[in-house]
Amino acid sequence: MNDPLPIDRAARAEKIIASAHHYKVCEGCDSIVSERVATCPNCYGYRFDEESENVIAQARLLGAREQRSVTAQDLL
Question: I want to staple 50 with a disulfide (CB 3.0 to 4.6 A). Which of 20, 23, 24, 43 is the partner?
């Protein structure tokens, strides 16, 4: 798996936190995705938590740890 540096993950988390209303959390795999997607690009789930507080909490969690999931980019 090609894990981005923790600094990159933390920077992405800060970007998400700053505009949490533009994101949602996939209830299938806990990924954070754009508010515009209908299905998760990682697990193809279609149920999302759109509460900003929950997006922020998930961004903080994901930004503070290494990547554990396989994404579509990892499969290229």
Answer: 24
Whole-model pTM over 0.70: yes
Are 23 and 34 spatial neighbours (Cβ–Cβ below 8 Å)?
Answer: yes
Phi/psi for 22 (5° steps) reads -95, 5
Q: 16-31, pLDDT tens digit by residue? A: 999 999 999 999 999 9
What are the DSSP calls for 21-42, one per residue? GGEEEETTT--EEETT-SS-TT
Task: Measure the CA–CA gap between 10 and 22, rounded to whole angstroms.
Answer: 18
Q: Which candidate, 69, 67, 64, places its Cα nearest to that of 17? A: 64
User: Tokens representing 59?
Assistant: 């961004």
Residue 21 makes CB contacts below 8 A (sequence gap 6+) with 35, 52
